[in-house]
Design goal:
The chain has 98 residues and is α+β, with helices and mostly antiparallel strands. The chain has helices spanning 6-29, 40-43; strands at 72-75, 87-90. The longest helix has 24 residues, at 6-29.
Length: 98
């Protein structure tokens, strides 16, 4: 196949550009029914009626602190090793196992 000369290539590209410009002018004028201009509202999807919100973060659990006027006494937890922390109990009732 023979190589195309630069002049022929330049002329072919110029003709293609001119045809594209003519087609773009027809589309902009609305003369081609397949390329009718639409408003931006027609191309965008309708706005959702539902509002998306984020759930509030869960609050951190607060430690149960007995009232300050309650007398506290330490109780050893025998079911655990010696390194277990002391558990404070109110009155005669004993705390349940954690």
């Amino acid at each position: 196949m023979a190589k195309e000369s630069s002049e022929a290539k330049r002329a072919r590209k110029a003709a293609a550009k001119e045809a594209a410009r003519a087609r773009a002018a027809l589309i902009a004028a609305g003369d081609i029914p397949g390329y009718l201009r639409q408003s931006s509202a027609a191309t965008r999807p309708p706005k959702s009626r539902h509002k998306v919100v984020q759930a509030p973060p869960d609050c951190a659990a607060k430690a149960l602190i007995p009232p300050t006027d309650t007398e506290l006494r330490p109780r050893e937890r025998e079911q655990y090793a010696d390194s277990a922390p002391r558990v404070w109990v109110r009155g005669e009732r004993h705390a349940q196992d954690d």
